[in-house]
């Protein structure tokens, strides 16, 4: 499979986000435990989980992008969602500035939009017939 330069770039971004999710999860489990309140650790865990889910969704979408440009739009939306959703939760964990929680749902909406765009990509991509 030959990836376009756009697929390579977005694939690298998605892989880096997955790496970041694992690294942040390990840091949360071992480094943050004694630094922040227990309820703040729940925010951190949620951030890491959603970062990984949408990083993996992005990898899938990158691989499918040769069939429809819609799949790359999913990656873009997931990446923006990761920045706003996971990023705001991580910052809330570290700073306890709760107003950052107002940003979190915007990231969630971007996640949902990314999945809807991916759905549209699946529904409107024609498969060549074998003949």
Automatic annotation (TrEMBL):
Compartment annotation: Membrane
First-listed, main subcellular location of the protein, grouped into a coarse class: membrane
InterPro entries in the record: DUF423
UniProt KW keywords: Membrane, Transmembrane, Transmembrane helix
Statement: the UniProt record of this protein carries the keyword Membrane: yes
Bilayer topology term: Multi-pass membrane protein
Gene Ontology cellular-component annotations: plasma membrane
TM stretches of this protein: 52-73, 106-123
Family: Belongs to the UPF0382 family.
Protein name: DUF423 domain-containing protein
Species lineage: Bacteria, Pseudomonadati, Pseudomonadota, Gammaproteobacteria, Oceanospirillales
